[in-house]
Amino acid sequence: LAPQAGAYHLQKEQGGKGVLLGGVPGVAPASVVVIGAGVAGAQAARMALGLGGDVTIIDKSLPRLRVLDNEFSGRLRALYSTSTCIEECILHADLVIGAVLIPGAAAPKLVSRNLIAGMSAGSVVVDIAIDQGGCFETSRPTTHQNPTFIQDGVVHYCVTNMPSGAAHTATMALTNATLPFLLEMANKSVKKTLQQNVSLAAGVNICAGAIIHPAVAASLEVASKELADVITNVPV
Predict the structure, then answer these.
(1) Smallest Cα–Cα separation from 64: which of 40, 38, 100?
(2) In terms of Cα–Cα distance, which of 52, 19, 55 is closest to 34?
(3) Could you report the per-residue pLDDT of 88-124, keeping only the tens digit for each?
(4) Which of 4, 60, 97, 217 is the least crowded, having the fewest Cβ atoms under 10 Å away?
(5) What is the pTM for the complete model shown?
(6) How far apart are CA 42 and CA 28, in angstroms?
């Protein structure tokens, strides 16, 4: 959804600079910068390319950047994340998509207020990480009813729970991903499934009243516990 939202709000009547994301013959496409090359960032880059944007994706994982470079056959720039790289890319961007996620923890503030102020008027930032606090220093949560605000001349789209804007597709996608786990728990019991399914066990945040995920525990300033130590307290 991020490239769609960004493309829409680049329109002049939405407060943007009046740039068409894909450009037209004789006119350059919009410069799109995606910070974070995980699932959300890669999908954002894919959609932005599909809309014809000039796309740069930034991440600190070289193996992940190599995968994306091979997948897109050089159609995007895959750059290693440094403060200098982020600054140079953002100052020349029309649309910046923040897709940084640290599982269980608040998103790092990778884009400062001063850097936002240095962007050209009418540029757009879309903060996918807003549910974890956002990765732009100027971000604050918005809603689908009032999705944007303008800070230092830059349009900010910081809608929490962005997938609810495409509720049918989001529900079907989530169901497809989670139904196999639900069926396994229904057939085996929750306790046995967590003991036998390593993938599901790795996603447990809280079990039997104890915080399992280290990042969640750290954000709350409490100690985490091992799942194996508390699973015996699960009744079934």
Answers:
(1) 38
(2) 55
(3) 999 999 999 999 987 767 788 999 999 999 999 999 9
(4) 60
(5) 0.85
(6) 23
